[in-house]
Amino acid sequence: MRKPFIAANWKMYKTTGETKDFITNFLPAVKAVDNVDIVLAPPFISLSLAGDLLKGSNVMLSAQDLYFEAEGAYTGEVSAKMILDVGCKWVIVGHSERRQYFNESDDFLNKKTKAAKAAGLGVIFCIGESLDERNSGKMFDIIKREVEGGLKDVDTDNLVVAYEPIWAIGTGVTATPDQAQEAHAFVRDRLRDMYGAKADDIRILYGGSVKPDNVTEIMSKPDVDGALVGGASLKPDSFEKIVKFG
Ligand code: PEP
């Protein structure tokens, strides 16, 4: 069975001090949770500190992005090896904000995914359609293109896929559980085309305005295996309620 996977994407929020305060409050509150994989993705600047604070705990660390080159003259970028070195097990690749504001293409994200996996990081690979794409009937084409392009020649080990409809991210509008299930089932079918029966072991997360009061219903759907949470992950008590859903 697929173990639920719930990750906090802090985006460009929290200083190192705020990261420390969060983790100090959050860890004792969730230390008995052993039925969910819990992941925090702070900004790069806090990863090292967070890695030290989370060491030996049941909460894993993720970066929000990486660059695909191993090292070199790439001012401002961070490699997979650097991310691993500070204690990360995971990295988010292809978040819609990266695709939208930084023009990251399927090919580019495929390179990032391969570099992360080759270095030993798990990848939380994000996909999802905009409202225009949904309304104009292109939703399934977009999702198919993002899955097949981004995951080309990528194996399934430590691969998690996050379906995040762009119109639901940070907007307070959540996909209904049925809309999430419809998209997740479609994603799983595409993963079956690529990976055969191994697709049944891949966790597919839902992301888009997940909160303590809607997580249980969304998680009840058969192809929803977890959540990627932005806004509602920024306060320890709110994220605690989410990881203790059900
Ligand atoms: C996200 O950043 O991946 C996200 C889903 O954000 P929010 O929960 O705020 O919609």
UniProtKB/TrEMBL annotation:
Keyword Cytoplasm included in the entry's annotation: yes
Pfam families according to UniProt: TIM
Keywords of the record: Cytoplasm, Gluconeogenesis, Glycolysis, Isomerase
Residues that, per the record, bind substrate: 9-11, 170, 209, 230-231
Entry keyword annotation includes DNA-binding: no
A GO molecular-function annotation: isomerase activity
Compartment(s) where it occurs, according to its Swiss-Prot or TrEMBL record: Cytoplasm
Main location per the UniProt record: cytoplasm
Family: Belongs to the triosephosphate isomerase family.
PANTHER family the UniProt entry points to: TRIOSEPHOSPHATE ISOMERASE
Entry protein name: Triosephosphate isomerase
Taxonomic source organism: Candidatus Magnetominusculus xianensis
